[in-house]
Amino acid sequence: MKITKVLIADDIEKECVDLLQANGIEVTIQTKQSNDDLKLSLPAHDAVIVRSATKITKELIEAGVGGRLRLIGRAGTGVDNIDVVAATANKVLVMNTPQANSRSAAELTCILILSLTRHVPQADASMKAGKWARKDFMGEEVGFFLF
């Protein structure tokens, strides 16, 4: 399968676009399209790259395979916004990037743990209620060992 023309249907990092173009792939960036617009643009492309905003339905896949569409790439972990059954039935390859947000997810997990340990949600509620019960939020210490 030779990919020469890719539609970017959701906002992605500029580095991704640069990488595709550096490898001789023609890139069309058309984000926030309606389903009717996608039905018109998908058949003209070998592949489409989406994040979570664009839903790739059976109807869109069937419109795309009437033209050149052979690959759907998901810039992210899940593929719940892509009708994988319809893609498979139409011989369209679905790919995702399961490790793309692992670091961000790990960072968020650490921050949420820290916020619970330091009673940040309770302190926030206290401040919003017009109080600052400083002593209620003291006494916890957190340490990290970095390798």
CATH topology of the largest domain: Rossmann fold
- Poorly predicted runs of 5 or more residues: none
The number of domains is 2
Instruction: Give the CA-based shape.
Output: elongated
Total strands: the figure is 5
Percent of residues in beta strands? 5-15%
Largest sheet: 5 strands, parallel
Helix content: 25-40%
The helix/strand class is alpha/beta
- Classified by CATH, the class of the largest domain is Alpha Beta
GO molecular function, one term: phosphoglycerate dehydrogenase activity
Pfam families: 2-Hacid_dh
InterPro entries: D-isomer_2_OHA_DH_cat_dom
Domain D-isomer specific 2-hydroxyacid dehydrogenase catalytic: 6-115
Task: Supply the key terms.
147 residues; 6 helices; D-isomer_2_OHA_DH_cat_dom; 2 domains; alpha/beta; 37% helix; five-stranded parallel sheet
Helices and strands in order:
Blueprint: E1 5-8, H1 14-22, E2 26-29, H2 35-41, E3 47-50, H3 58-65, E4 71-74, H4 84-89, E5 93-96, H5 102-117, H6 120-128
Parallel strand pairs: 1-2, 1-3, 3-4, 4-5
Helix pairs in contact: 2-3
What does this structure look like?
It is built from 6 helices and 5 strands. The chain has 147 residues and is α/β, with parallel strands linked by helices. The protein has 2 domains: 92 residues, NAD(P)-binding Rossmann-like Domain (Rossmann fold), CATH 3.40.50; 36 residues, no CATH class. Strands 2-1-3-4-5 form a 5-stranded parallel beta sheet. It is elongated, with a radius of gyration of 22 Å. The two termini are 43 Å apart.
